[in-house]
Design goal:
Blueprint: H1 3-24, H2 27-39, H3 42-47, E1 50-51, H4 66-72, E2 78-80, H5 85-98, E3 106-109, H6 122-126, H7 131-147, E4 152-153, H8 177-192, E5 208-212, H9 231-238, H10 240-247, E6 252-255, E7 259-260, E8 263-264, H11 269-279, E9 285-287, H12 296-299, H13 304-314, E10 319-320, H14 328-333, H15 339-356, H16 368-374, H17 378-391, E11 393-397, E12 408-413, H18 439-447, E13 451-456, H19 465-470, H20 487-499, E14 503-509, H21 528-539, E15 544-549, H22 557-562, E16 565-570, H23 576-584, E17 651-653, E18 657-658, E19 662-663, E20 669-677, E21 683-693, E22 704-713, E23 718-725, E24 732-733, E25 739-740, E26 744-751, E27 757-764
Parallel strand pairs: 1-10, 2-3, 3-4, 5-6, 6-9, 12-13, 12-14, 14-15, 15-16, 19-27
Antiparallel strand pairs: 7-8, 11-16, 17-20, 18-20, 20-23, 21-22, 21-26, 24-25, 26-27
Helix pairs in contact: 1-11, 2-15, 7-8, 7-16, 8-10, 11-13, 17-23, 18-23, 20-21
Length: 765
Amino acid sequence: MTVRQLLLVFLAFFALSGNILAQEKDPKMDKFINDLMSKMTLEEKIGQLNLPSSGDITTGQAKSSNIAEKIKKGQVGGLFNIKGVEKIKEVQRIAVEQSRLKIPLIFGMDVIHGYETVFPIPLGMAATWNMAAVEQSARIAAIEASADGICWTFSPMVDISRDPRWGRFSEGNGEDPFLGGQIAKAMVRGYQGVGENMYKSNSNIMACVKHYALYGAGEAGRDYNTVDMSRIRMFNEYMYPYQAAVEAGVGSVMASFNEVDGVPATANKWLMTDVLRKQWGFNGFVVTDYTGISEMIDHGIGDLQTVSARALKAGIDMDMVSEGLATVGKSLKEGKVTQAEIDQACRRVLEAKYKLGLFAYPYKYCDVNRAKKEIYTAENRAVARKIASESFVLLKNANNTLPLKKGGTIAVVGPLANTRSNMPGTWSVAVDLTKPATVVEGIQEVAGNNAKVVYAKGSHLINDAKYEQNATMFGRTLHRDQETRSNEEMLQEALQISKDADVIVAALGESSEMSGESSSRTEIGIPDVQKELLRELLKTGKPVVLVLFTGRPLTLTWENENVPAILNVWFGGSEAAHAIGDVLFGDVNPSGKLVATFPQNVGQIPLFYNHKNTGRPLHEGRWFEKFRSNYLDVSNDPLYPFGYGLSYTTFSYSDIKLSSTTLDAKGELTASVTVTNTGKYDGAEVVQLYIRDLVGSVTRPVKELKGFEKTFIKAGESKNVSFKITPELLKFYNYNLEYVFEKGDFDVMIGGNSSDVKSARFTLN
């Protein structure tokens, strides 16, 4: 037996033992579920595996709905995306009062970055680098969702992606697995609670980490597309955030749409059982993504009965929408699945309901009084506003264009300047789109009465009407159909109001549905019609501030060269508009840092900071060398590197001080720097730690994020920031997929972004 085989056997034994021990900790749950399952028919067991789409059920008519009959027969395990506690209570009553065994339903919803109080899109939330804020946002989302009857959220989404053409880039945490893992843990804690307090309160809900696995690595940045990569790359660059969620105790996992090693994830036993359960010790339940089972027919691995049996045998426990697992009764008769496999899936779903407390009190999440008091409160909105302002990334600020003065005339121009519905961003399914303020309103309110704010749309979102229609779905319209003016007339209006303005704020970029699911783009710049508007605004000679809306890294080479100030606001949530005002006028000093590399152009994609060297790397400071790894037409450099973000103040870093230049296998050393606020404004800085393993048994990245600390420093003050480095921090998966550290030299780098760092070296003995 090889070393690798021995390791995998050990890991499998350890994980299985851990699962057994975990089950033994709650013999009461075991006995309850054993007793319940002894009474269940095969059809009722299979029913627990079914998560159908009901649509929004009208209060008072649930009893007569098609889904009601299935619930009465025990053919449904849960429902999703029903909004409203009274509706949910009514449906739950059917399950616990009119079905034979009175098994409660689990109710899920896509509570991705807030419920009615919406926080920045996950890509923006990650840009805060503030794990306390991330956890707090998930906690508030759980409070609001649970107050409205929801007990299960399909979040966090932790897919690593290096291709910003992919629309769902907006839903993830960027390109780095270490940062993604910290965010995964924080969100699970926020949703579920911690330790003995997990699920104890009716304001804690079950999380569902997704999309397991590798969904963000689809070929060509096209959604749902094929993924093909080596296992060493999987484990070193993509898998950790999923594992981190499991380590944090996440209650459920969602299978991804894509294939892994030639087998769709939904039917991939290696992925769902060997890695997830045996290696990582996950003991919750696994749900498919929407129609994930039936889609495997188009993947080409069998008919509905065949793919459903494969999904069950792989480790899938619950079927979202496809109702394919309804066929496993037939497969059982034909010997294609076993009773034990059906029982195991049923048990896992029942355990989730037990852990949530639904058997003890089926109406735990159905307190109608909570909904009136705990949703979209002033307190929650204040937190959302603060976090939104912390997520914005200042990309450029020539000649201290920002912050603006609260006075004079401010022209606010652009197709995104006067829209409410586009402020929350994609996947904000519970938000009331009429409530968010517009950018115009936010600027006026923060600026106060001493400033005059004037507005003009200036252009359409996109020149192509059909493209704009596809980019403004789900109620996020910009009312193009009501616009009777030509592009030229809208432009002239913008120039006219700008003529007498002291400054121009251009609210441009993507609409909220230009990113998100099934919103991949081949060109990722600001649409041409908006860029033309921006060109003309610059010609006025007035200071121009680009307030950039985006759900992905964009190509902004021209904008960076020509626009004095660029503030990337992502989609900041329901309180985005006022947060934008807070930052523009300096009430809040921007502190966001990029979690994804911005390329100079699409041709550089994929472009990410933690890449590997080639055997012919480009020499430092060069653009082009023949027979080196480079391009003829553009440098290898990003436009904005990972970790980048400006402030209204400036920070300087001392050289790195190491407590020792050697580290043994059981020791630790400390790397520290002194960070000084050398500017005029108090501000927060994200101090980032990177490490490079200089020589390995396999090739290693040029640097990897291994720590970070966000620290507030007053103007003129200095703070010492230190990081502990242990051999555990230096581990990686080697060629045999053993998780190890290797002796040798390491570079430790500390700085304000991945490109601008101080460096020192130590040796691991």
